[in-house]
User: Which sequence fits this backbone?
């Protein structure tokens, strides 16, 4: 699949995909005989995972660290697991904070709904 179609499929601009390739986040992108990028289902799976990490608040530096470990192969499984466990702990803490914010907003909304605020 060419970069234009792949871009639409994964929801990232061609510029972002080229940037990810430049910084080493997207490696081994195949090329056609004419030199155009050609993306595979494995590239899609990887980009979907990268997007998930990014959407859950993992900094690009952490994603790059994970990608480098992944590239090194099976010897880094424990390190990758630990990196994901650390991110999960961060995410869990962040979710708890958001839940507290939600409760505070619910309390304020209930106050307004009760009519006891002028």
Assistant:
């Amino acid at each position: 699949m060419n970069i234009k179609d792949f871009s639409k499929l994964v929801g990232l601009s061609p510029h972002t995909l080229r940037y990810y390739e430049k910084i080493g986040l997207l490696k081994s992108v195949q090329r056609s005989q004419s030199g155009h990028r050609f993306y595979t289902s494995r590239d899609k799976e990887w980009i979907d995972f990268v997007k998930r990490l990014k959407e859950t608040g993992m900094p690009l530096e952490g994603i790059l660290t994970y990608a480098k470990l992944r590239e090194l192969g099976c010897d880094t499984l424990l390190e990758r697991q630990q990196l994901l466990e650390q991110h999960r702990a961060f995410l869990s803490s962040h979710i708890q904070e958001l839940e507290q914010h939600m409760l505070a907003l619910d309390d304020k909304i209930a106050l307004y709904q009760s009519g006891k605020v002028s």
